[in-house]
Amino acid sequence: MNLQPFFRCSGAALVALLVFSLGAVAQADDWRSALQKEIERIDESFPGDLGVYVRHLGTGVKVAHNTEQDWYLASTTKLPLAIVLMQKAENQGLDLEQKLTLRDADYVDGTGDLLWVDPGARYSLEELNRRSIVDSDSTATDMLIRFVGEDSLNEEVKRLVPEGLGPITTILQVRYDAYSEVHPSVSVLTNRDFIELKTANTYRARYDMLLEKLDISASEANAGSVREAFERYYQRGINSGSLKAYGVLMEQLARGELLDEAHTEQLLGYLSEITTGDHRIAGGLPAGTPFAHKTGTQVARSCDIGLLTPQVPDEAVIIAVCARDYAALSEAEKAYQAIGRALHESGLTGMTD
Predict the structure, then answer these.
(1) Are 28 and 61 in contact (CB under 8 A)?
(2) Which of 126, 88, 130, 143 is closest to 272 using CA atoms?
């Protein structure tokens, strides 16, 4: 599988990668021990909790830190959706050029440009899939989930990874589920209400706006803040999963076991072009390091999951990192970048300084 068009590696980088490959097995114990210690040190200095899963596909050597528990996956659930959609094209004859019409009820707060497009615009399934991954466009994501069907999506994800992932819901349903922890009358709100809530400058302002929309007082609320509401929601285990289970999915993708060659290249290409991860793991890697990944962000939760040097599956490295219980996303981003530097210093990027 030739992925060079998507991962513009220099000749020197590829040579360095091959040199690394020859010594990978002999050096496995060295990098594993050093990386494990550095990840533990990073987590100790981080004002929250980190979960980290690293696995070199050629040797099978791995590092696992806080992976015995489930983590809220946020928008990284958009990758299983993309895989399911492409599999339907391969196995069931789904035409990815088929178009869906953007409706007023489709808009979801978050990143991406579809929020600013007038209703009535038409987009192919392929274009919506690209936007869902590259731009993490939640409107595109929910249009696709409704097209596939939430039950059908979860059945397919269960087939791909029998244990450790899901259930997955629409992004809009996340809002209903989380804010229902404040008051059940949230069910009367529309998608436009949630978009307006997201415009609040602070969580406190968002909470006050929510109470105003629901026409209730703080004493009538079941949760005293947005943070408390989301923390309760996370306990339900929805849109959550094991980093190891997600790693299994990434390995299957890297080895071409999920999709045919064309769709594998296309999806890894999307993951290499994402516009939402410059300040996470990629921020700690040397410029030009091939990294196909997906990020996710929610209240006091975030993730960055992907593949380092995916041109040769046996030399690819799965890296799955999630963070929680921090006060500001910038704190988590510093930890992600530190992990990126640690991966490079361990030799796993195949790049030289």
Answers:
(1) yes
(2) 130
Query: Total structural domains in the chain?
Result: 2
DSSP-derived letter for residue 69 is S
Structure tokens at 47: 């004002």
Q: Are strands 99-101 and 71-72 parallel, antiparallel or unpaired?
A: unpaired
pLDDT score, position 352: 55
Strand partners, 297: 302
137-154, pLDDT tens digit by residue? 999 999 999 999 999 999
The span from the CA of 321 to the CA of 326, in Å, is 14
Do residues 246 and 332 both lie within one domain? yes
Contact present, 24 and 287 (Cβ < 8 Å): no
Residue type at 90 in one-letter notation: E
Residues 340 and 268 placed together within one structural domain of the fold: yes
Task: Mark whether 218 and 275 lie in a shared domain.
Answer: no
Give 94's pLDDT tier (boundaries 50, 70, 90): very high
Closest CA to 72 of 237, 281, 294: 237
Q: How far apart are CA 302 and CA 75, in angstroms?
A: 9
In a domain, 278, yes or no: yes
Range of 52's domain?
26-72+242-345
CA distance 141 to 6: 23
> Residue 245's Cα: distance from chain center in Å?
13
pLDDT in tens, 4-53: 444 444 444 433 443 344 444 445 667 999 999 999 999 999 999 999 99
